[in-house]
Structures are given as C-alpha cells and as structure tokens.
Specification:
- The chain is mainly alpha-helical.
- The protein has 17 helices and two strands.
- Among the domains are: 90 residues, lambda repressor-like DNA-binding domains (434 Repressor (Amino-terminal Domain), Orthogonal Bundle), CATH 1.10.260.40; 44 residues, no CATH class; 73 residues.
- The chain has a two-stranded antiparallel sheet with strand order 1-2.
- It starts with 22 loop residues before the first helix and ends with a helix.
- 34% of the residues are buried.
C-alpha cells in the first residue's frame, strides 16, 4: 500500500487561465480545509520535509509571503507542498519565468492587493489570484477596475478583531473578518486603459501551459525584442527607447542579450509598440489587435525617469542651474533621478553647475539644522523651568520626558541643544549655591 499524503490535496484553482491561484492563497485554502492556521501547516510541512542548505524562516515567510517571485523560499515551499498533496503547483508562482526577468520589481512584497469586484462575485471566499501578486499589475482585466490594497478596512475600530483571531484568506478582510471586503462600501474605481492593457498582457503570460513555455528562454526573448525594434522602429534602438520612455542603454543591452529587462519595462515597451507580450517571449513580434494607430498607449510602469534621452547637454546644464536657484534646493541625486542621469556623469561633465547646487544644498541643510537646534533649545528650556518649579531634579531623561522630545545620536541638533540646556541649568545651580554660602 502506498504511503498516505501528508495533506488532502486541493486542485489549484483556475489553473491554465489568467485567474490562476497564487501559492499564498493555496496555502490559506489548504490550511482552512485541514482546520489549521497557515503557520501551523507550514510547520507540519517542514517537519515532514525539512529544508537544508538555505535559511528558511517560516515566521518571516508568513509575515511577508515573498514566495511568488524567483526566490528560493518559494521554490522550496512549492516542491514540498507538491510532495505533501500530490498536486502540481508550478503555475502558482512566477518561478517558471525566473530566467527571463530579474527578481527586482517582479512580484509584490508585503503590500498585497485584490480586485474588489472579483472578491464580491460570490458569497463565499474566493481564491487569491497570482495576477494580483505581480508588481506592475494595478488593475483587473476582467472587471477593468483598479486593485485595492488589502490593508484597507472600513469597519469601526471597535469591530476589528484581535490579532490572534484574524482570518487568513485573500478575499477576506484580515482586520474585521468581512468576506469579500464588504466592510468597504466605496465603489470600485474604473482603471485607465493602460492599466487594463498591462493586466491583460501579464494575464496571458500566466495562462501559458508548460508546453507553451518550453520554447521560451532568454535567447527567444532577445530575438523577440530585436524583431520588435526592427519592425516598428527601423532597427533604431534610440527611437524605441525614447518613444517608450526607457533608457537607450537598457534597450540596447536587451537587444544584444547582455542584460534582462524587468517585466514592467518589457510591458511598457510592448504597450507603446502594440506588441503581444507572449509572442515577444517566444521570439517574434506580433501586433496586438487591429489598432490602426501607429503607436499604442503610453504607460509609465518604472520608477525611474528617462527624460535625459531627449535632453541635450545644454538642457541638462540649464536644469542643474534652475535647481540651484530653488528655495528648497534639491540634492544632486534628486535632480539626476528626475532626468535619468547618473550623478557620477553629472559631476564629471558639469562640475561647476554641480558645485553650485551642492553649495546651495549645504546652505539649506545648515539652516534647517540651526532651526532644529533653536526649536529644541526652546523646548528643553521650558521643560527645565517646569521641572524646577515643581522642585524636581533636572536630568537628561527627565528633561526629554517633560519636553516630549527625545535626543538621539541620529539627531545631533537635539543632542547639542540638550547638552547646552543642561549646562545652563548646572551653571545656574552653582551660582545659587555660591550665593548661599557667600
């Protein structure tokens, strides 16, 4: 007789579609089916199938659920759950695309989201979608509404549950236990067209079967990007980068196979060039739909700005000079981030302009530091007077407690203010004592 499985295996919800279940949701449903908390289920799983060779902290895993990207913890957890349930779970994470995209900006970390329309479709809790765990996805392609942060709760504070009684389910509010987040009565916000298109592209990618993924690799992705640049931009990498709002250097390295694009950057390029993401992964350029426009929608999915690709040296110099004239002069790093310029390049090419900006920033920081010092002196002086009126001892801790102003090493202005006030108090006490004995 074959050995029993550790857990009763549940089928992965909506496998083979854009609504495929995430690994986190599967663990939560499996825990509910076995009347266990997710933490206890993972403990039992790892007791039977221990993890060796890597640091595996299930407490941290359950707090942050960093398992949907390409990290080792997600792979290890998936393999052990498959052994424990005999259920294929390879489609519940993004790990099968790990060779195509870097780990950064791939899967969500901590800040979970959900579609308010999806969770309200049924009276019972529904499963959490893997699509909701992709960082660049902000909308639901089915209902065309924006995703909502799972941390939001609309129930009054007195109705919220204590931490040890809060449910663990993707479609249930963890704060109050409301199924489908019905504690929030606000209508779902319609998503802009670019957000819907992003979700549609990523949803098609998640729906790929193992057979369809077999021919997808880094070489095919490189070939697909190269064909896109040739067909749409006449082999001009700079034109492709400027039009999509990306770095020329980045797109060039993708075409040459030197670096890998992040998923958000690749989708941003696909939207602008009307390219099908799945076809691009397979090594070919296919136009999306029958859109007669020359270029598609413009989306901004990356944090960095690449304004520099359309700026001359004269424009960059003028930008640095204008920043130095601002009342609250920004740092060199801030200005460079705005225009997509490496700070080292700015210091090498525009030393005079950078020097003026650094001088203005130094003036601003000194002024702010002096103001914080003066404010702290006033607060500690008032606190010292109040303590003396009550006949209390004026010490460092009592002074900070009375002023409700903590002086710590990261705030030298307060430390200096506290020392100066204590010194004045000590000098005043010495004078009083000298007058008494005199």
């Amino acid at each position: 007789m074959s050995e029993r499985t550790l857990f009763y295996g549940l089928p992965l919800a909506c496998d083979g579609s854009a609504e495929v279940e995430s690994l986190r949701s599967y663990v939560e449903r499996l825990s509910y089916a076995h009347n266990l908390r997710p933490r206890r289920l993972v403990e039992v799983l790892l007791e039977r199938y221990p993890v060796h060779g890597i640091g595996f902290d299930y407490a941290t895993l359950l707090r942050h659920w960093d398992v949907h990207g390409s990290g080792k913890s997600g792979t290890q957890l998936t393999e052990r759950l498959e052994k424990a349930t005999l259920t294929p779970l390879g489609h519940s994470t993004l790990h099968r695309f790990a060779g195509l995209f870097p780990a950064a900006h791939f899967a969500r970390y901590r800040d979970t989201a959900y579609c308010p329309e999806c969770v309200a479709e049924t009276e019972d809790p529904t499963h959490g979608r893997l699509l909701w765990e992709v960082q660049c996805v902000t909308a639901c392609p089915k209902h065309r509404v924006l995703l909502r942060a799972a941390a939001e709760c609309g129930a009054p504070k007195e109705e919220r549950l204590p931490v040890n009684r809060r449910p663990a389910f993707r479609s249930v509010c963890s704060a109050c236990g409301s199924i489908g987040f019905r504690c929030l009565t606000d209508a779902a916000i319609p998503a802009p067209i670019e957000a819907v298109r992003v979700a549609e592209h990523v949803g098609k990618m998640l729906a790929l079967s193992d057979a369809q993924c077999a021919g997808i690799n880094l070489a095919s992705l490189q070939a697909g990007i190269g064909e896109l640049v040739r067909e749409v931009y006449g082999s001009r990498v700079a034109n492709a980068a400027v039009d999509a709002g990306l770095s020329r250097g980045s797109v060039s390295t993708w075409v040459r196979g030197v670096n890998r694009p992040s998923l958000s950057q690749l989708v941003q390029l696909c939207l602008r060039a009307n390219a099908e993401l799945v076809a691009l992964l397979a090594g070919r350029y296919e136009r999306v739909g029958d859109n007669e426009d020359e270029f598609g929608v413009q989306a901004k999915l990356t944090d960095r700005s690449y304004v520099r690709v359309v700026m001359s040296d004269h424009d960059i110099l003028a930008t640095l000079d204008e920043a130095a004239k601002e009342t609250d002069a920004p740092t060199v790093q801030t200005v460079c981030a705005r225009i997509g310029l490496n700070p080292r390049v700015a210091r090498a090419k525009f030393p005079v302009a950078v020097g003026r900006l650094v001088a203005r920033c130094t003036e601003r920081r000194v002024a702010e530091w002096n103001q914080r010092h003066e404010d702290a002196v006033v607060a500690y002086t008032k606190a010292a007077a109040a303590l003396q009126e009550r006949g209390a001892t004026v010490g460092a801790k009592a002074l900070q407690r009375e002023a409700r102003l903590v002086a710590f090493s990261q705030n030298p202005a307060r430390v200096r203010a506290l020392d100066s006030v204590l010194k004045k108090v000590a000098e005043g006490a010495e004078r009083v004592q000298g007058d008494t004995y005199g």
